[in-house]
Amino acid sequence: MTAPTTDAPGYGGLGLYVGDLHNHCGISYGHGPIEDAYANARLQLDFASVTGHGWWHDLPERTPELAGLVDYHTEGFARLADRWEHVQEVTAAAHQDGRFVTFQSFEWHSLAHGDHCVYFDGPRGEIIRAADLEGLRVRLRALAAEGVRTWAIPHHIGYGTGRRGIDWSSYTEEFAPVVEMMSMHGCAESDEAPRTYLHTMGPRDTAGTAVHGLRLGHRFGLIGSTDHHSAFPGSHGHGRLAVWAPELTRPAVWDAVQARRTYAITGDRILLATSVNGVPMGGEAPSADHRRIEVTVRGRDALDHVEVVRNGVPIHRFSRPELLAAAGQEAGFDGTLGFAVGWGRREAAVRWDVTLRVEGGELLDVQPRLRGSETVAPAESEPAGYRPHDWRRTGPGELRLRTVTEGNPNTATDATQGFSLAVVGDDRTRLTALVNGVETSYSVGELRQGPRTGFIGGFVSGAFRFDRAVPDRELTADLDLVDERPGGDGDFYHVRVRQLNDQWAWSSPTWVGRAGGGGRAESCRRAG
User: Fold this and answer.
1) If both were cysteines, with which of 162, 237, 238, 300 could 268 make a disulfide (CB 3.0 to 4.6 Å apart)?
2) For residue 327, how many C-alpha atoms fall within 13 Å in the half-sphere facing its CB?
3) For residue 333, what are the CA distances in angstroms to 337, 442, 499?
């Protein structure tokens, strides 16, 4: 599939690619073979790194209370060391420039400095057992002198200092052009962000948030990744990163992250391009009192709102009524249709064989919304494999999915499997689903009115859902505003987007000038 592009200022010659650089499997502590992890990644991502847990320099003492935790981690570290050569071989074999890009990585834990994922700009690397963060950086500098580029990127930053969250006093941009803000742990944009922290490690702390670090004067981009532990990179809803790069190659993706042309998403491939005075996300615009902020959004579900944020404080929210008023009316149908399977009894496996056909219209692209097992802790037994899904396009307007679901594990966790389909047609265009041999079909006109559901059996059986047909006018936003900030050198702007299906995107900041000034006066208005 050709990468999406935009003519937004600063994005010429760039395409949008989506990946997951931080996730786990059975190579350390986690579940499933690394071969399955990369096979699952290729179902819906452009690039990935499968991360092994490698080292914890200040692992707590093995007391009776913490014996299980300590043994769990040390056994995982030993497992990765034993399998490291195999991990590198699989990572190298999974890579194919132009189709799917891989990076070698491992995770370095630290109560004091926060966890960091260490990446190498190729398929091979080493497990660095540094005794502190500076020791890790010393080794990375030595590798740089040998021509090996590396990163040490902080993740689940929101736990705060001393609790495996970030310590901003020890952060530098040297090996961390970006920080991982969104993952299965939650979102650490700010203390008001959605997706709060619910893991056993504790709640989100303001001092560990991205906005706090940015206000301290640090300059970094924002990314998401899943931190999934069951061989499923990109598991929908946990976190992914999007990059603007000229091509899908290892150097191009690396350079895009290094330049902070990145943004964090929860799952849906929301296209987001932002600029300040023509400088794209991640960049530094020259000093200016007059800032023109341009935002381009192309969603996969109806947009709820788009917020422009300066120095961590929203300065304008484009709400749904405002976005719709600006979009105007449209003829025919150019938008998205969605379909998902799952529900039913918990832990009662349902096997699905689904064929979807778009009839009387054109299927432009298919974006999977696939999820992996939610298993994190040790399991009593392991399944034979961790490849629950297989999907492919079987014709110009057709795709087939074979999968297994086991219901939602609780009423707050979505374990359904589905797709977002970009379609051009009219109200007579139909989406037909052949579900385990039974055909169901609805027209776009019918689906404009709302979602339709069906079941494969009686009460609490597995179910399927046709989502509401969402026209382009509800998916897109092209926004332009001016912020007057005399003396506001050092300001940083980022944008957050929410869809009605609770999928999010957060751009990396764009800075204006160097720190200083003080913002003696300010005024924000729509351009034009």
Assistant:
1) 300
2) 22
3) 11, 14, 19
Query: CA 269 to CA 324: how far, in whole Å?
Result: 21
The Cβ of residue 349 has, within 10 Å, a number of other Cβ atoms equal to 12
Pick from 93, 109, 86, 96: which is nearest to 22 by CA? Answer: 109
Cβ–Cβ under 8 Å, residues 33 and 385: yes
CA-to-CA separations, 484 to 295, 317, 478, 508, 518, in angstroms, rounded:
17, 17, 20, 21, 13
> For residue 24, which of 106, 89, 91 has the smallest C-alpha distance?
106
Per-residue confidence in pLDDT tens, the chain, 528 aa: 689 999 999 999 999 999 999 999 999 999 999 999 999 999 999 999 999 999 999 999 999 999 999 999 999 999 999 999 999 999 999 999 999 999 999 999 999 999 999 999 988 999 999 999 999 999 999 999 999 999 999 999 999 899 999 999 999 999 999 999 999 999 999 999 999 999 999 999 999 999 999 999 999 999 999 999 999 999 999 999 999 999 999 999 999 999 999 999 999 999 999 999 999 999 999 999 999 999 999 999 999 999 999 999 999 999 988 888 776 667 799 999 999 999 999 888 999 999 999 999 999 999 999 999 887 766 667 787 899 899 999 999 999 999 999 999 989 899 999 999 999 999 999 999 999 999 999 999 999 999 999 999 999 999 999 999 999 999 999 999 999 999 889 999 999 999 999 999 999 999 999 875 444 456 677 775
Q: Write the CA distances from 130 to 28, 136, 528, integer angstroms.
A: 18, 5, 55
> What's the rounded Cα separation, in Å, for the pair 233 and 141?
29
CB 136 within 8 A of CB 108: yes
Indicate if the alpha-carbon torsion angle 179, 497, 368, 244 is positive or negative: negative
Task: Answer whether 0.90 is exceeded by the pTM.
Answer: yes
